[in-house]
Amino acid sequence: MQTGSRAGTNPLAMREYGIVFAFIGLCILVGALCQLKVVQGTWPQNAFLTVNNLLLILHQISVNGVLAVGMTFVIISGGIDLSVGSLLAFSGMMAASFATRSPGVTAWAGNYGAFIPIVVALAVGSASGALNGWIISRFKIQAFIATLGMLMAGRGFTMAVTNGNPISALGPEFRWFGTGKLFDAIPIPAVILGIVFLLAWIILNKTVFGRYVYAVGGNEKSARTSGINTKAILIWVYVLSGFLAGVAGVILTAKTGSAQTAAGTSYELDAIAAVVIGGASLSGGIGRLTGTFFGALIIGVMNNGLDILGVQSFYQLIIKGSLIVFAVILDPSRKLTA
Amino acid sequence: MPEPMLSMSHIKKSFGGVKALVDGNLDLEAGRIHALCGGNGAGKSTILSILMGFYKPDAGEIRLNGEPVQFHSPQQALAAGIAIVQQELSGIPHLTVAENIFLGEEPRRGAFVDFPKLYRQADALLSSLGFAIDPRARLDTLTVASQQLIEIAKALSRHDARIVIFDEPTSAIGEKDAERLFEVLRELAAAGKAIVYVTHRLAEIFQIADDYTVFQDGARVATGQVADINRERLIEMMIGGAIEGEFVKENAPTAEPVLELSGLGRAPWFEGVDLTLHAGEILGVYGLVGSGRTEMLDTIYGLETPDEGEIKVFGRPLPPGDVKAALATGLSYVTEDRKRTGLILSASVGSNLSLAHLRHLHSLGFVKRPAERALIDRAIAGMRIKTPSPAQLVRNLSGGNQQKVVFGRCTAGEPKILLLDEPTRGVDVGAKKEIYRFISNFARAGGAVLMVSSELDEIIGMSDRVLVIKQGRNVAELPRRAADQKSLMMAAL
User: Fold this and answer.
1) In A, which residues are within 8 Å of B367 by CB distance?
2) Fold entry, domain A14-38+47-333
3) Residue B209 in this model has a pLDDT that exceeds 60
4) Where would a tag sit more exposed on chain A, N or C end, judged by fewer CB atoms within 10 A?
5) Structural domain spans, chain B
6) Complex ipTM, two decimals?
7) Which of B227, B179, B216, B218 is nearest to B11 (CA)?
8) Mean pLDDT score across all residues of chain B
9) Contact list, A226 vs chain B (CB under 8 Å)
């Protein structure tokens, strides 16, 4: 069944293991290239294979990872959410307006600690997501179009909050969520990613709701015949995606110390990339959170490794773009979804 | 007797072990319209596919104007002058009539389409056929009938067609448009072409065809001139003998009503449908495709909301358009097309079986796995589903086993009333009998079954009563002893 506990005959499980091997292979490749530099005497030590760097990777993928978790639900349900980058910026901006020591950027601006700004960000993200879901299910509009609209509108809302200005001078309580460390070692964003991933995994794999998400994406008519309220399921899926965009907005804003109107631009594409590399099918019904997690890790390791190796950013983009396409071409079970 | 233009003799064709054609014969004469008749699986479409070059025959001979020919591809058949007018409208809505007719063979000037020439060509073709259609009109502004005429023009434009095959050309158009189509057919025949006409509407055969050929079980069983036979005789020839022991029927209906429809209607599909289904009864619903049968079941089950009328289950009104309420009162629905509306192909056998029952198998939203597993194991055993494990993806199962998964899901909640839409479509003979046995046992245990089917044998073999639906209204109700193929077809056509 969905957990793939009987792996032998289940191609979904094969897909899951495939990505683990791909990840390990990538790590070995990047590690070996770095080791080459050590052997050549260019570097004093292997800069990739240090605990600090591996923690840094987790820190770096936290925002994309959180967005990709929401995107996994959306894609399994047969949709797509293009608005998460904009919703990240919008919720981050709203949170910042309640966590800033520079009054006057908005009519209500002030520093209210950490709790209130976070609640505001999550509420803004969830409400925008609910609007996405309502439009998609009520008017039977393709998710691509509805969330494309939200992508633009969300960016507009973000700018409207402050007339296009950024918000900085954020309070330390709020900033802890981006810069703090657990046990003086593990970055808080990585901890948040871990919690989000765990909870989401439980929801997707252990609850009735999770099973209904698969059912709606696999065959909406069949789900309806089984007495499932498919509209409600869809709305909740987009609420979840919006909520997680709010979480990502908190992390990014707290990490960078300011809310920028251009924050999160095109992040939706990285999130989709992570989900697709993770083996999900854009036609719905197929996908796993573990796949998405490794998909986000692969993108993170590649970004990090190519940075360390001094590869220029435009070549990085070419490599990343190729990887996404190859990942799907090489997917052994892809023919199942065609 | 003149030499036929086309003669196909003793054609054999098997797919795997299934013999689709045992002794296929077909003779076509120039200038005549030839009706090809037979039930589903009789071999009509196989012999036409061979003529069109889609399949290679295992044995037999095809002669065109006396010369033996072999078609290895549809292109070769087209080049030899055999054209088919597609049953389904396959035009591109946002292109013009002319662009559609010459799609892929547009006159060009370099890389550009030579539009003036394109429209001249289309004009010439349409007027030669006598179709008053503007070649510059966008296809989606035309009526369905005109679009069908465009399909004909397209088929005739490519090559000098000598044989034109029409596969159910009137299935999508109304009576008046059909008249226009018949005129065109007669003109084509008058121009010396041989026309093959396939239809399920028997009345049309007597309206338009000159000759007929009847297929049954992969062989030609009769051929001749339409003028020599009548409708009853044609139906008799199409039916032939029925197979014994195909069905299982051991239930006995009671007088206790469980499902009552009064004046149920949903525009434009059906209206004023009345029926009463009793405990222990199998009520067959027969009607042609498009008669509103599926829409009626959808509405009873609550997938759609009726415009008028009432549904009562066990004497209590059922809230309209509410699937959950229908499920709760003991209704369950095996839909028509298991791949499109029945199964979640991307999921496992187990997930498909438990899907409709998870709402009872959880605590605080968490699925109770042991209870779910027990339900799945019961369903697999109860329906005798052949699967290596519940984790197997349902798409890897055979058609019969997939259908058993749909049945398993629908019956795992112990329903009292089963709505079945084409319960054995695309299912092999062995699995069919198991499904019949299941239906019979379900009714014998006091359940009630409302079964829609377009297979006459199945309706007659399984039903206690048969309701005939025609154009969205119930037009006849026949008790089991009176329901034979002839009377049902007479009522439905």
Assistant:
1) 206-208, 211
2) ABC transporter involved in vitamin B12 uptake, BtuC (1.10.3470)
3) yes
4) C
5) 6-239, 257-492
6) 0.75
7) B218
8) 85
9) 355-356, 409
